[in-house]
Amino acid sequence: MGDHQQIATGLYDRAYEHDACGIGFVADIKGRPSHDILERGLEVLERMEHRGAESADNKTGDGAGVLLQIPHDFYRTLVPHLPEKGSYGTGLVFFPGPIHDKKAEKLRAALIQEMEGLAGKSGLEILAWRDVPTNPEVIGLIAKKAEPVVKQLFLVPSQGNSPTDLDLRLYLFRKRFEKAVREKAEFAEAQDCYFPSLSTKTIVYKGMLMSSQLRSYFTEFANPAITTAVAMVHSRFSTNTFPAWPLAQPFRILAHNGEINTVKGNRFWMAARESLLQHPSLGDDLRDILPVIEPGRSDSASLDNVLELLVMAGRSLPHALMMLIPESWNDKNPISQELKAFYEYHACMMEPWDGPASVVFCDGRYVGGTLDRNGLRPSRYTLTKDGLIVMASETGVQDFKPEEIALKGRLKPGKLLLVDLQEGRIIPDEEVKKQIATQKPYSEWVKKQVVTLEKLPEIAIGKTVIQPSDETTVLFMERAFGYTREDRDNLLLPMAESGQEPTSSMGTDTPIAVFSEKPQRPYNYFKQVFAQVTNPPIDSIREELVMTLTSFVGPQRNLLEETEQHCHRLKILNPVMTLADFERIKAWHDPDFKYKTLDATFYVPSMGSVQAAGEKGHLETALDRLVDEAVKAVEAGHSLIILSDRSALAPEASRCAIPALLATGAVHHGLIKAGLRMKASIIVDSADPREVMHFALLFGYGADLIVPYGALASIAAICRSADAERTGDYEHAEKNYLKGIQKAILKIMSKMGTSTLRSYR
């Protein structure tokens, strides 16, 4: 699209895009379409112009758009042979420009030809095209350089195909086309060819515009024949990133103000789930929609991709949103047991998309808004006596006389505002959530299938659990794993004594690891990131109501269905485990939780050994072997993969531990590549981690549980030394150390504005 197409260059990639925007909607609660709703929606957008960004030319915006119900009567005047409302699909298409460029014309023709072929494959046929009238004179020079050629496509079911699953066919067609554009060499210069929407119910008009330019750019908005019962709008402010036509919002279902702090992990986990996806209506066609998340889009676009999949697969829009952006449901929250069971059931299936977020959404029937569990983005609404509802990032977007207003309010953290345009009413948060939480016996399923450590059989645990236990082996272990006196005296001892992360001065005068001439542990090459720009961190102490380390271990199942077995998982409140709890898990006999211990060490040759040129090193060979063993173990039905480096404790074995971070990351990504990651959990049984940052990194690189046997063995040795009077007995010291690690991990999560460990991974 012109010469302003943003591609991944240097440190820039669209996948890093975040927004801080203005959002809102206007709707007639009774579902009565009118041109006035569109006018009011555009006015809401224009009054939030300060929420969007503009370039130095004062004419190029970061993005603005509106989602409407399809104005059937208006389109009927343009396409006389259009069938009945709801029996066709339509959407705008951004084609490569400029409009009179010969090369671009040829590319557009090839893209249209591709669409025609894919339409037939999807059980559709193209009924009509039209050029959407636009006024490029109102936009800035930068936006004009990237301006697409905007056309509108009308599709109907091909002969012999029922219109009942038309939206699903439209979804298949669009995903197939997106995949073709990404993968075919002939479309290398058409990466911004894009469907803002394609639906039987809604249509999106948007662009790289300022809020005030939308109505004048799309000139047909002035036509009173365009009627709708809802207008959902978005004014984009892309924080420290570039604007682009496809990244303007609304997307196909939602518009989002905020940042998804966990988006990188969410994308990886969604990719890992794809190997398990099955759906009766999609069958083998499901492979054509993968990847679910379109590469190279923003965090909001990725969230919309997953929401769209869940809705297309049969979940209601509010149900899908409750899965993706759940409210806090721990024991301290005053919500019903039925609703807690619903959230716990779905927590067994997927992690939250976490971060400050105010989301408005519309699928043609439902329109509404929701907030993240912390309520870090505002959303306010006004209801009038004549059945109009206005919701936006702020008040003042519409003028009403006091006597016209029936109700004013604001969304609370984790709550839903839902308008059912078909039933013509607002459904209260409590009602909609109760209805969804009781549509299946989630409480019964969770009570029966979710396993906690307390439910596991007790086993006789003696001192042999603390390994190594003799001073000579402990000393050898500490040397082998690089423990220092500073680790013992300034880290392990204070934590075992107080249950707090040691306090130290800010700053460090040591060289960063990559510039150091001395060997460094892999952990040392990483630095903590933190919430920045518009994104506030969380106080993990005062906001503990929304913070949790609760994790679920064991095999996962198909995201697109719900059965009792989906929640047959092991629930762990603190995933940094005691040795006793680790032994209980290993002693547990359940065919769904078979474990396999893999040796995470490698052979160390004797001094003077010569390695052949081009031959893999011993560490690299061991990593390949470890990944291969993990894949075979999962294929054989093992769902708990234990990466253990205890073989390194025997001096005569000449073995060295693979750094736990390398081993974890290699196995995690190896299982993803093999399509097996969701069938198993990774347990790291290692002497390597002892600092808080070590644990945080291991979780970030795929560990589900961590057993720090080395740190605990060192603490046990301290309890047998002259410092025992400071730490007390081992049980007390162990409890304090794990408590300190737990609190410090929560603090690290809070710096990123992340509330749950399941999202942090």
UniProtKB/TrEMBL annotation:
Domain Glutamine amidotransferase type-2: 21-422
Keywords associated with the record: 3Fe-4S, Amino-acid biosynthesis, Flavoprotein, FMN, Glutamate biosynthesis, Glutamine amidotransferase, Iron, Iron-sulfur, Metal-binding, Oxidoreductase
Membrane spanning stretches: none
Pfam families linked to this entry: GATase_2 (PF00310), Glu_syn_central (PF04898)
Native species: Gracilinema caldarium
SUPFAM superfamilies: FMN-linked oxidoreductases, N-terminal nucleophile aminohydrolases (Ntn hydrolases)
EC id: 1.4.1.13
Listed name of the protein: Glutamate synthase [NADPH] large chain
Superkingdom per UniProt: Bacteria
Obligatory cofactor(s): [3Fe-4S] cluster; FMN
Enzyme class, broadest EC rank: oxidoreductase
